[in-house]
Amino acid sequence: MSLRLLGIAACLVACGCASTQLNYNTVDLASSLNSLTKRQIFFNLAQALTDPEFVPSQVTISVGTAQTLNSVAPSIAAPLGNPVLTTTRVGSTGGVGAAADFVSTAIGSVTPTLGVQFVDTWNQSWTISPINSSTQVRRLRALYQYATGTLSRRDRTVDLTLDEAEKQFLCEYPIQGLAVAPHSDNLVFKIEGCPNNNTRESEARIVHADPTFVQGAGCVICIDDLNAKQLRPHVNANLKYHFMRRQKTGDMVGVGSYGSIDFYVCDSSDGNCPRVVGQAPFDGHKAFSDFILFVYEAALVATSGGSGRGSGGSFVYSIR
User: What is the pLDDT of residues 34-57, one digit of tens each?
Assistant: First the structure.
């Protein structure tokens, strides 16, 4: 009975350990999302600064799975017959001129045994969706170049003014749109003065935009009044131009690095930090936090059927 109780107790302990381990693995998996996101963002920021042919490498993380298995395999060995064994041996010994007989008796008992085998396995995995749509990648490229001040221009040694940067970003950021059809639900508007890569002349561009992506706090390109006679798109005020810097000057602080490249932002809106012409003071920490959310927004695609947003295909990255 005591052996059986011991086995039951071991199983209960294992079940409790499994629950605790599962909770720990789940929290650990969830806490890694932020670091995974920042790491690939820092990689792309570094590429935007160093690679003239920069094309972002980005994945979206959709589903996380944490699995834990604890098992106990107790084994009990007990004698089925008489647990007491008696062995008797009769013999004689003889020496020079003498002889003697003896009887030897040995009594032994078979002892029951208990064995317990513990198994502890766990698995953590993320399901990630690689971004390979050209329009998604163009949106991300424009975002990273806007954040690092590397938007294309004739003289790369001279930074764009805020008005110039916002104008160019409006032209280069392809807003999410539904399929263009004779009776599409897209908003249609024109952006004037977009630069042309092969001439010094500018051109106008017609934009078809899903209304879902130009409203609310998360819009990258926003339109305040959808019912206005003339739609006026503008860059979200929380998306700051050239807020990310490679060199620490004034009141700037480090927020991360990739390889040999360190990244700095202004510590507060009251700090002495470099800004482009026409730009008001801002908090670099908030600008970076908002930028991460804008990356999430740019990775989404417009979908029909009322769902509004989607992210594409996926595959599983697993750690055991």
Answer: 788 899 999 999 999 999 899 999
